[in-house]
Amino acid sequence: MNDLPKILEQKVFYVIRNQDYNVAQQICEMLINLQVTCLELTFTIPKVELLIKALRKKYPTILVGAGTVLTLAEAILAAEAGAQFLVGPVFNPTVSEFCHRKGLFYIPGAMTLQEVTNIVNADWEIIKIFPATAFKLNFIQTLKTFFPTKTYMASGGINLTNLKEAKTLGYDLVAVGAFVTGDINNKIFEQEKIKTIISTINQEGV
């Protein structure tokens, strides 16, 4: 897992969810031009593996991973495309075993203490709490009582209103998506608006 140190340095994962390949590609290019260094391309993008491969080739210094990985087949596609990490909304033991075998970093999602325990027992460093806003954000403080050395990502419903709160309460990372680039069907995105949002995120010290 040669990319692990670089992954752990990230504070924000920008999640790209769009049902149009060309729009997703344009969003990625725009974010990279705005100095974003970590992209999570989800399997809601048609032929996402082709976009992962293209971005890895064009921007070798940018971290590019696959998101919404639910099956082993998707994990294999992402790995073959050159994804540097895989993110899932839930923990999949088969995907976990595959990633360990391939030396590929896996960030699975959890909502309960039992689910977090399963991820810890599977020996993964970053645990994605998803959807983080389904309960009070201070749930992270309970988790850190039991597993204080793990790294936690807040994902799902994070925006400019609660992002600072998530960090203050103890989340190490945040994943942001729709509030930056629009919803999954969005074909029009305002670069100046996105630039302002990213600037604000950076100013928050995230």
UniProtKB/TrEMBL annotation:
Coiled-coil region list: none
Keyword field: Carbohydrate metabolism, Lyase
One of the record's GO molecular function terms: lyase activity
InterPro entries reported for this sequence: Aldlse_KDPG_KHG, Aldolase_TIM
Entry annotated with the keyword Lyase: yes
Pathway: Carbohydrate acid metabolism
The family this protein is said to belong to: Belongs to the KHG/KDPG aldolase family.
Assembly and interaction partners: Homotrimer.
Protein's name according to its UniProt entry: KHG/KDPG aldolase
Species of the source: Spiroplasma poulsonii
